[in-house]
Amino acid sequence: MQVLRDHFLKAAVEIGRSGENDTLPYDIDAGFIRDTAEGFADICFDLFQEIDQKSFKDAKDFLNELTIGAERLLAPSGSNGFRITTKIHPFWNLYLNGLGLAIAQANEPNRSKRVHSYRLGIEGAAFFDRSHSWRTFKEATLKEEALKEDGCVVVQTDISSFYEHIYHHRLENVIKDLGAANSTVALQIDRILSKLAAGRSFGLPVGGQCARILAETMMTPIDRSLSDAGIVWHRYVDDYTLICDSRQHAYEALSALSHALADYGLSLNRTKTTTLSAKHYADYVAAQLGEGEDASADLRDLDLHFDPYSDTAQAEYEQLKESFKKIDVQFLIDLEKDKSQPDSFVVTQISRALKFQEPKIAAQLCETLLDVGNLDSFRASWSKIMRGVYAVRAKGEFSEFHAKIDQLLDRVIVAAPHLLMPEANLLHFLRAIRFARTDTRGVFVRNTFERSSSATIRRACIDCWHHWPDRTGFNYVRNRWQNLTPDEQRMFWLAAGNFGDEGKHARQQLRGSLAQSWRLGFEHNGSQTFAACYQDWVKNGA
Length: 542
Prior knowledge:
The chain is α+β, with helices and mostly antiparallel strands. Helix content is 57%, strand content 7%.
């Protein structure tokens, strides 16, 4: 394992394309990291070298003295569940991802071909190869010759509270095995994770790329133990499928997996462990993959991960638009809204497809998705719906229907406030309403800013005032500068550019405090700093 400047550079580019956290909306900080990628690659690599050249004791003391900003936010998981996601300070998120990429490259050769989650990509800016997915995981299990044997049974199971139960010290040891004896990478990861977990020695921050890499690294020796035991298995993240020649061997395989997990402080979820005959399993997977549902088959098969930064972006966009001419998307969403439990994948695909529709069709779909009754049924796909609505609301070709979409969004504030309770939901909603101010939104954003204890939420409120632009909101925040967190201050600093002389004067008055307020704790005289990079980025037309 070798950490290079290029790891941090690639991490910066990837953040700029995909965002910092996939459970939360794209944040302007991701654009900041992208636009200043070269400078941040230098800062990160210099910091890494400084730490890596220290003794283990000095490196640990140095890291322990740092403040690593992060906030825990509630995000939905399915229709009725929730989980905690972590919004990490943009610099530390970048630094973690750079270290993670170095770890992933060192660990990838150790991983079994039976692992289908987060395989490292070889080409392009993305960390992971999109050809590996949950769908290909399920399809690979159906190709096993063992399924054709008489008496074959299949065990489906998953790990209980996977990310939350990963023990930092065991992870540190696994990472140590990838590096040289004097490498501090494992120590750095351990200390940063401890700070993100508020001093606890377990749990990964959900939502970022590094957490996925660390989870897969932790699972590598566990996967190897299954192969050593002669078990036919496949895994996607925390989901295991074990293929056995009898129920007796299935029980033995499940025991072997439980032992392997226990060695690393993990355990199986008993309520999600099922044993099926080979035929029942094949039928079950066919249903999961939507086979036989002719109406949605074409939609399911489309790859809607459109990359606007691709060299062939326009051609890819036109090709996707052409693909939808043979799909009656409105019919499909009407089918889903009448189900007691809508298919979240179909709803997600439809939400992703909004920006590829003709304007009138996109407006009709938005009306269906944002209907308060339907939205409650579709709540498991909230983030995808809001991303889709945002994409339509942002594009000029849909401008004829923007006023209608704004009315539908305003109705959510009044008729479905419960859906805005989880912070992740609220962040997606605030991003969708920042295009235009209405009286309903003005009251909502002001009340949200005053009542929320979340710096991330308050920052999103400032962003709304920035985009509207709302001078009343600007002055309201300006008079509370000293009470703002550094993240809120940075958003206000950016927003000031939209308020003419008043914004210019505010920046002049506050400039002297920024170096100290936005200090990360490892800066040296004469070196590039996070605060200076941000000020330059804003000055040069962020």
